Amino acid sequence: MHSLNVELGERSYPIEIGSGLLGNPQSLQPHIRGKQVCVVTNETVAPLYLPRLLDGLSGLDRVDTLELPDGEAFKTLDTVNRVFDRLLERRHNRSTTLIALGGGVVGDMTGFAAACYQRGVDFIQIPTTLLAQVDSSVGGKTGVNHPLGKNMIGAFHQPRLVIADMDTLATLPQRELAAGLAEVIKYGLICDAPFFDWLEANMPRLLEREPQALAHAVERSCRDKAAVVAEDERESGRRAILNFGHTFGHAIEAVQGYGNWLHGEAVAAGMVMAAELSRLRGDIDAALVERVRTLLELAGLPVAAPEGMGSGQFLDAMAVDKKVLDGRLRLILLSALGDARIVDDSPREQVVEALNCCGAP
Ligand SMILES: NC(=O)c1ccc[n+]([C@@H]2O[C@H](COP(=O)([O-])OP(=O)(O)OC[C@H]3O[C@@H](n4cnc5c(N)ncnc54)[C@H](O)[C@@H]3O)[C@@H](O)[C@H]2O)c1
Ligand SMILES: O=C(O)C(=O)C[C@@H](O)[C@H](O)[C@H](O)COP(=O)(O)O
Ligand SMILES: [Zn+2]
C-alpha cells in the first residue's frame, strides 16, 4: 500500500492507494470520529462493492446506506436533496460521517451534501473509477451541475480520508478507464513532463490494466494534484492549472447534454483545443501538439469537437466558465511540456482558429 498526504494544515488528510483496502476495518475506522455513518453510492456500484465496504464498517453504532441513480444527468440539487432526506429521516447529527463509494459523480455530490448538512460534517472518499482515484476524490471540490453550466453550484470541502482500492478498477468499462486516462495525461502536460514521457511509453500497459502500471499512474497523479492543491486550496491562483482543457470540455458536456460525452472525453478534446491555441500564440510548437493528440488517441479518447458543434456554440457556453473575470475568458494554456499558466488575453479570433483546427467550424 502507498500512502500520501494532502498537506492543508488542520485539514490535511491521507490518500491510501492499494489492494484489498475496501473491506478492511483498519483502513477506515480510525478516521471515523463519531459512531454514525451514511454510505452514499449508486445503483451500479452498490451491487459490486457495497457488501465489501459494509464488512469494513462492522462494529459502528449506525451504518445507513443510500443508492442514487447512476449518471452525470443526475448530478443535480434534486439528487443531493435525497441525501439530506435520508440523513434527516435517520436522525444523523453533526458527528456523522458520509462515505462516498463510487465515481466522481457520487463523490462530488456526497462531498457537497457533507459540506451543507448541518453546516458541515465529515466525509470520506472511496473512489471506484480511475478518474475519481486520480482526480475528483482529491482536493475538496464538490458540487452539482446546472443546465446552464458545469459544477456551477458547489463548495470546497475536504475529505478526511481518500481510499483508492485498485481492485475496484477490474470491473470498470473500458470507455470509463479511458476517460480517467485523460486526467492522468493532464498532469503530465501541466506540471510533470517526465510523467508524460512515461505515459507515452506505458500507455499499452495501462490499457491492459497491468496492476503495477495503474498503481504508478494513480500514485503519481495524486502526488501531482496534492502538491498543487496544497499550494492553493481554493483556486485563487496556481490551482487553476488543473482546469487545463476544461473550459472547452465543460462547454462540450453542457451543449451535448450531461452524460453524452463523458467528462474525461470532453477534457481530452478540450486539451487538444488548448494545445492548438498555445501553438497559435507561439508558445509551443506543432510537434508537441501532435504528441498530445497521439497520446490521447492511443488512450482511445476523442481529439476533436463533437460533430455539428460550432465555434459559436463553444464561445457561448464558455462565457459562463467560472474563471471568467470582468467578462474576459481566462484559459489555461501550455508554455512548454509540463508547464501551464493562466492566460486572459487570447483574441476571440485566435480561440475560434484553435476550435477550427479541432473540427469546430
Ligand atoms: N471534484 C473534482 O475535483 C473533480 C475532478 C474531476 C472530475 N470531477 C467530476 O467527476 C465526474 C466524473 O467522474 P467519473 O468519470 O468517475 O464518472 P461517474 O461517477 O459517472 O462514473 C462512471 C461510471 O462508472 C460506474 N462505475 C463506478 N465505479 C465502477 C466500477 N468500479 N466498476 C464498474 N462501474 C463503475 C458509475 O456507476 C458510472 O456509470 C464529473 O461529474 C466531473 O465533473 C470532479
Ligand atoms: O481540482 C481542480 O481544481 C480541478 O479543476 C480538477 C478538474 O479535473 C475537475 O474537473 C473539476 O471539477 C473542475 O472544476 P471546476 O471548478 O472547473 O468546475
Ligand atoms: Zn476534470
From TrEMBL:
Pathway: Metabolic intermediate biosynthesis; chorismate biosynthesis; chorismate from D-erythrose 4-phosphate and phosphoenolpyruvate: step 2/7. Keywords: Amino-acid biosynthesis, Aromatic amino acid biosynthesis, Cobalt, Cytoplasm, Lyase, Metal-binding, NAD, Nucleotide-binding, Zinc. It comes from the Bacteria. Signal peptide: none annotated. Its EC number is 4.2.3.4. It is found in: Cytoplasm. Its cofactor is NAD(+); Co(2+); Zn(2+). Belongs to the sugar phosphate cyclases superfamily. Dehydroquinate synthase family. This is 3-dehydroquinate synthase. It comes from Microbulbifer halophilus. The gene is aroB.
